[in-house]
Specification:
One of its GO terms (molecular function) is transmembrane transporter activity. Keywords: ATP-binding, Nucleotide-binding, Transport. InterPro entries: AAA+_ATPase (IPR003593), ABC_transporter-like_ATP-bd (IPR003439), ABC_transporter-like_CS (IPR017871), ABC_transpr_LolD-like (IPR015854), MacB-like_ATP-bd (IPR017911), P-loop_NTPase (IPR027417). This protein is an alpha/beta fold. The protein has a domain of about 160 residues: P-loop containing nucleotide triphosphate hydrolases (Rossmann fold, 3-Layer(aba) Sandwich), CATH 3.40.50. The chain is about 30% helix and about 25% strand. The chain has six helices and eleven strands. Bound molecules: adenosine-5'-triphosphate. Adenosine-5'-triphosphate binds next to β2 and α1.
Length: about 240
């Protein structure tokens, strides 16, 4: 694989492409290179596991792919749009329309029911609430929480809260799903069912999914795996069982 950012061209048919991505954080007089010339493409309907030791750069890759931090060098291309070219307002719109983000902790609002957690984002974006409720109810069915739509977070298990989180990330019909340690707070059985669900929704909704995980046990459920070490990403290989 050619690793030079100068010779790699973005493939705009891929929902997510990172080209020659380098991210440096200031560190005293020097810098910490969290990402070092990372190249990655994820196709629609494909879920990639991203593994690596603590501090290797996994969260930095997700943050850059989510356009939450601007890279020092290299390109982030989301559904054909080069994020580097956009101002902050345009970036926020790109994230809203194309990117779903799932963090380790669901961060649900304590006073809202499951369905309201999904609808409120659409409401704040000025979208019609009625249509949002219909989509939210459908998505809660998809994630196996059809009968939990009116429950509040304290009435749901950790796994169910993570299911709400996944459904919420799908509300805006994203092209790219970025998932950070989705099973960190869950037991073995629930962890497996959450990874299986992420694989299912990746296919059903044709999103390009990157899942950071420390649970290498569940990697074979996904399509491909890439390893991060000191900011350098290996080329993805099939995650065969
Ligand atoms: N905001 C920041 N400012 C300075 N350095 C940072 C910042 N964020 C991350 N780093 C550094 O960048 C490197 C990569 O960190 P990153 O959090 O991306 O790794 P990680 O693989 O996600 O680690 P973990 O598995 O522990 O979450 C580390 O050396 C880290 O200390």
């Amino acid at each position: 694989m050619n690793n030079s950012a100068n010779t790699l061209m973005p493939d705009r048919t891929m929902p997510l492409q990172l080209v020659g991505l380098t991210l440096e954080y200031p560190d005293g007089d020097g810098v910490i290179r969290a990402l070092d010339n990372v190249n990655l493409g994820v196709e629609a309907g494909q879920i990639l596991s991203l593994i690596g030791t603590s501090g290797s750069g996994k969260s930095s890759l997700l943050a850059a792919a989510a356009t939450l931090v601007r890279p020092t060098r290299g390109l982030v291309v989301i559904d054909g749009t080069t994020a580097n070219d956009l101002n902050n307002k345009q970036l926020a719109a790109l994230r809203r329309e194309k990117v779903g983000i799932i963090f380790q902790q669901p961060n649900l609002l304590a006073s809202l029911t499951a369905i309201e957690q999904l609808v409120i984002g659409e409401h704040l974006r000025g979208k019609p609430v009625k249509a949002a409720r219909v989509r939210a109810a459908d998505l809660l069915e998809v994630v196996g929480l059809g009968d939990g739509a009116n429950k509040r977070p304290h009435q749901l298990s950790g796994g169910q809260r993570q299911r709400v989180n996944i459904a919420r990330a799908l509300m805006g019909s994203p092209k790219v799903l970025l998932v950070d340690e989705p099973t960190a707070a869950l037991d073995h059985e629930r962890s497996e069912s959450i990874v299986r669900l992420l694989c299912e929704v990746t296919r059903e909704f044709s999103v390009a999914t990157v899942m950071v995980t420390h649970d290498t046990e569940f990697v074979p459920l996904t399509d491909a795996v890439a390893v991060m070490r000191d900011g350098v990403l290996t080329a993805p290989v099939p995650a065969t069982a």
